[in-house]
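Dear H.,

Thanks for agreeing to be a second pair of eyes. The structure we're designing against is below in token form, covering all 183 positions.
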């Protein structure tokens, strides 16, 4: 499960997980953060974006390896296709990470730039980058491009799901319906 920050991805994936039997939810960034804490590189999850790309790459590989070992019927991995860093956009699923995870499906959660801005502004639990609606339009287009590349590299089918205001249950239902056909 992927999407840009503020799209409501975590809400949708939590609802989708609860609609499946024997499903587990793993947040890729949390697994990375646990490794960063162990290495004493950061004390705040949102500060991982400020680490040099090579350190981020090391954290990604460690998280992918750990997640790939999980054995459940369905493992939802809540992650991002890219991360905005001071060095540019860093892929959230570079080839070695995607290969280690071996996804069966790639699902992109989308919403309008205006909805994303409103969600980001109301989320006081995170330290989000301040962006304009035009920046978010570019990020949404970039997410689709990264999704297509990830699908091509892994052979996993891709699905685009809209998470419009008040429609998270509907978005989750679309995902659950697709996965039930596949499992």
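And this is the sequence the design step returned. I haven't edited it by hand at all.
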């Amino acid at each position: 499960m992927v999407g840009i920050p503020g799209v409501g991805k975590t809400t949708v994936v939590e609802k989708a997980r609860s609609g499946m039997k024997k499903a587990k939810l793993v947040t890729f960034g949390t697994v990375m953060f646990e490794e960063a804490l162990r290495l004493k590189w950061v004390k705040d999850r949102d500060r991982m974006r400020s680490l040099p790309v090579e350190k981020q790459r090391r954290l990604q590989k460690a998280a992918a390896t750990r997640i790939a070992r999980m054995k459940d019927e369905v493992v939802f991995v809540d992650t991002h296709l890219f991360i905005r860093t001071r060095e540019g956009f860093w892929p959230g699923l570079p080839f070695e990470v995607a290969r280690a995870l071996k996804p069966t499906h790639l699902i992109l959660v989308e919403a309008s730039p205006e909805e994303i801005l409103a969600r980001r502004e109301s989320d006081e639990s995170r330290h989000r980058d301040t962006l304009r609606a035009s920046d978010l339009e570019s990020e949404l287009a970039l997410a689709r491009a990264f999704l297509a590349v990830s699908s091509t590299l892994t052979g996993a089918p891709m699905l685009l799901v809209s998470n419009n205001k008040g429609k998270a249950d509907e978005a989750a239902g679309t995902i659950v319906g697709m996965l039930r056909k596949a499992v």
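Two observations from my side: The mean pLDDT is 90. DSSP finds seven helices and six strands in the chain.

Warmly,
E.
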